[in-house]
Design a protein that fits this description.
- The chain has 184 residues and is mostly helical.
- The chain has one domain.
- It is built from eight helices and no strands.
- The longest helix is centred in the C-terminal third of the chain and has 29 residues.
- The chain is globular and about 45 Å long.
- The C terminus is likely disordered.
């Protein structure tokens, strides 16, 4: 299912230090179809387990493998690899030399940000785009709590990225439309 209206409305958000992150999530959930809502609910179970600091990830990863979302399966695989590496003391390249804990966490969140975009691919109006947005919104929320200036910059980048993705999708649609079609 495509969520043109939802995705278009997400870019209207502004970050002034008082974003209602829970409200944004709720509005996203309300716009989703039943099957897509179940995928997003499963995604949020990951956040709950991660926030609890080491809940039952094995059961979660098993359920994700059985779900129909390639984004969520890719996200869970990425998360598992990242977490297991950190537990073993194997940091992603470049972060192994970072001594400042805050900078290392920022580096990890930037990796998460980038991976979410990779998993979304060119699906700028579908469930993958919604999941990407929710991953990135979670990163922004986390940094808004730690450092409001960094949180604002990250949110501005998120909105700018949505605008750019939407423009690229429209350009691709127009370029692939047959001559004489309604898009000419």
């Amino acid at each position: 299912m495509k969520y043109y209206t939802l995705i278009a409305s997400l870019k209207e958000l502004s970050f002034d230090g008082s974003v209602d992150f829970a409200g944004v999530r709720e509005s996203v959930l309300e716009a989703l179809s039943g099957p897509d809502r179940r995928v997003v609910d499963l995604f949020y179970e990951w956040e709950t387990i991660a926030a609890d600091g080491g809940g039952d990830f094995a059961d979660y990863y098993d359920r994700v493998e059985r779900c129909g979302s390639s984004f969520l399966r890719g996200w869970a695989a990425f998360d598992r690899e990242l977490r297991e590496g950190i537990v073993r003391g194997v940091w992603p390249e470049g972060l192994d030399r970072v001594e400042n804990i805050l900078e290392r966490e920022r580096g990890l969140d930037l990796l998460r940000w980038e991976r979410a975009g990779e998993l979304r691919g060119f699906d700028v109006f579908g469930l993958d785009a919604v999941l990407c947005y929710l991953v990135r919104l979670g990163v922004v929320e986390r940094w808004a709590k730690v450092d409001p200036v960094v949180g604002r910059e990250m949110f501005d980048n998120l909105v700018r990225g949505l605008n750019q993705s939407e423009a690229e999708a429209r350009t691709n649609e127009m370029q692939s439309a047959p001559v004489g079609s309604a898009t000419d």
